[in-house]
Amino acid sequence: MNVAIAAKTDGLNRMLGRYIELAKKLPQEALAKQGTKLAFELANRLMPLMPAKGAVREAGIEMLKSGRGIRVRPAVRERLMFRHTAHSDIASRQTRYGKSSKTGFRRKGKTLNFQALAVQAELNVRERGRGYTQHVARIGNLKELGNAWSQVAAGSRKQKFHRGRYNQLLASAGLMVSEKNASLTLLYGSKSTEAGSALSTPRAQKATEDAIGAVTDDMGVYVLRKLRERGIAA
């Protein structure tokens, strides 16, 4: 874990202890509430990191103009092959597509070969994914995880999953309650996504650090107000 994030997390945990005591909440209720705030703050801070509309596509086009290539991910290529019914012509040793066995595709008055079409599709995928990291961070309201624990045995765990349009796991939240305490784990990314890598960039790490700090400061305001109401010095 990033050293700065670790330090911020330690501060958050210390403040949580005072918050739970003064708010007279169960640990699981407080964790679910503050966990919801943290996910919201992180998503909001990741929003400004999203490239402007069209920026990803323009960057790809500039790479092509400079002579560099664009790596087309296998899934994009396979989807195109399936969509256009690709088959090999043994006589010409060319890959042809569709019932008409064409070798090119008309797009906006131009004829593209399959590789050019694949590059275009890859750039489209990258452009659509420009807000991906922020979307991953939006786990949603976790307060439901802190409810009804009186009916659940100590040592139990509740989870909430945030999934994408293809049911891929983007993020998850897990709340564990024991006889003496509770813990909340927010996990971003999975084997089927690259969300963890996206959140490991320096700018995303700084956004995470700031989000933790914002939630800690917000609790600090509450704690200070409660202490003043009781006439206790902070």
For the structure shown, list the relevant keywords:
234 residues; 2 domains; three-stranded antiparallel β-sheet; 8 helices
Helix and strand topology:
Blueprint: H1 3-23, H2 27-46, H3 55-65, H4 74-83, E1 86-89, E2 94-97, E3 105-107, E4 110-112, H5 114-128, H6 132-137, E5 157-163, E6 169-177, E7 182-188, H7 195-198, H8 202-229
Antiparallel strand pairs: 1-2, 3-4, 5-6, 6-7
What does this structure look like?
- By secondary structure, the chain is α+β, with helices and mostly antiparallel strands.
- It has two domains: 147 residues, no CATH class; 77 residues, no CATH class.
- 49% of the residues lie in helices and 16% in strands.
- The chain contains eight helices and seven strands; from the N terminus they run ααααββββααβββαα.
- It has a three-stranded antiparallel β-sheet with strand order 5-6-7, covered by helices on one side.
- Helix 1 runs parallel beside helix 8 and helix 3 runs antiparallel to helix 5.
- The chain is elongated, with a radius of gyration of 25 Å.
- The model has no long low-confidence stretch (mean pLDDT 79).
